[in-house]
Amino acid sequence: MSQEPNLYAAPTAEVMDIRQEGEFELAGRGTRLVASFLDGLFLIPIIWIFLALIIFLFFGANGFWTGFKSWAMWQSEHSILSTAISCLLGITSYLILNFHLLNKNAQTIGKKIMGIKIVRSDGKQADITRILLYRQLPVTITAFIPIVNFIFSLSDHLLIFRASRKCLHDNIADTIVIKV
């Protein structure tokens, strides 16, 4: 007795990805973590230098430590404004350190050291506009929204554990990080 095909069964078609396997190798999660850590390691001193210059400009050489203490007190009294200033210092520092590398090779300093770079999901070069507007801007904007920042940041980082190794900002920008 022959069985008739189940008309309501799920399709069994094989779905092929747009890119061919073997064209490039995705960067490892640990490699991306170390690259991000290195970026922060290079970024923090630059931010502190900018902050020191701002304090020096406002308070002069003689009042530098007084100015530093005043800055710390002002930050505690004006937390939203100080967060905005800190974020602007961070963005400016990030761009000063990484703009050339991002524009040329779609790499930050940490990615360059670790031998990885950002490309489009189809393997084409990711341009600076895509990297800054779609990868970095959503992360930066959410930094100003307290609860949204926590949720976005947590989900952004946890999504790297998928098979595609794409974080939320990768999905937004249609990018992946590959080994060079």
Question: Mind explaining what this structure looks like?
Answer:
The chain has 180 residues and is mainly alpha-helical. The protein has seven helices and two strands; from the N terminus they run ααααβαααβ. A two-stranded antiparallel ribbon has the order 1-2. Helix 1 (29-59) crosses helix 2 (64-77) and helix 1 crosses helix 3 (79-105). The radius of gyration is 22 Å and the shape is elongated. The mean pLDDT is 84.
Give the overall average pLDDT.
84
Instruction: List low-pLDDT spans.
Output: none
Number of helices in the DSSP assignment: 7
- Helix-strand sequence: HHHHEHHHE
Rg (C-alpha, Å): 22 Å
Order of strands in the sheet with most strands: 1-2
What would you call the shape? elongated
| Number of β-strand runs | 2
Distance between the termini: 58 Å
Helix content: 55-70%
The major sheet is characterized as:
2 strands, antiparallel
Report the β-strand fraction as a percent range: 5-15%
- Estimated structural class: mainly alpha
